[in-house]
Amino acid sequence: MRHIWTSSELNGYVDFPYAKQVCAIRRETTHLVTNKFTVETVYGITSLESEVAAPRHLLAVSRGHWCIENRLHYVRDVTFDEDRCRIRRGSGAQVMASIRNLAVSILRLAGARYIPSALRSCARRNDEFVFRLIGIRL
Q1: How far is residue 119's CA from residue 101's CA, in Å, rounded to a whole number?
Q2: How remote is the C-alpha of 87 from its chain's centroid?
Q3: How far lies 120's CA from each of 5, 87, 115, 123, 125, in Å?
Q4: What are phi and psi of 97, to 5 degrees?
Q5: Within 13 A of 21's CA, how many CA atoms are on the CB side?
Q6: Cα 108 from chain centroid?
């Protein structure tokens, strides 16, 4: 269960550029395995006015953020083991993150739902299949 409270009455008090609204989101969750109940409250500041971003819209934006986190960053962290990558000089880390994002995006566009098995499938197939994924015909 999620609850949200928003206010634009703190605009003069919040020292944050372009602040139009503040919000508090309370998340109540029950862990399926342990049956442990937790309550978490997070706070946010947005430059969107209340006429543009009603509480329901802000709640949807918050959930959408976690969708991205779970679909991309988790895959990069776990499947590509990005946290243990030793590339740190120059722009190497940013380039490798872009390559990983590209690989995940190509596999998702090709219909892959589970990235680890899609990567294994690409590794087992011939080069022609992989090139076809990026639009190159041999």
Answers
A1: 13
A2: 22
A3: 45, 23, 9, 5, 9
A4: -65, -40
A5: 19
A6: 14
Residue type, 20: K
Q: Which two tokens stand for residue 78?
A: 């776990």
How far is residue 44's CA from residue 19's CA, in Å, rounded to a whole number?
A: 10
Alpha helices in 7-126 (DSSP H): 55-68, 74-78, 92-109, 115-124
Structure tokens at 43: 């706070």
DSSP state of 16: S
Residue 10 corresponds to which tokens in the numbers above? 């703190």
Half-sphere exposure of 75 (CA within 13 A, CB side): 23
Distance CA 114, CA 117 (A): 6
Which tokens belong to 35?
Answer: 């049956």
pLDDT, tens digit only, all 138 positions of the chain: 889 999 999 888 888 889 999 999 999 999 888 999 999 999 999 999 988 899 999 998 888 777 777 778 888 888 999 888 898 889 999 999 999 999 999 999 999 989 999 999 989 988 888 888 888 887
Assign residue 18 a region (left: φ > 0; alpha: ψ between -120 and 50; beta: otherwise): left
Question: Which residue shows structure tokens 């442990």?
Answer: 36
Beta carbons of 10 and 32 less than 8 angstroms apart: no
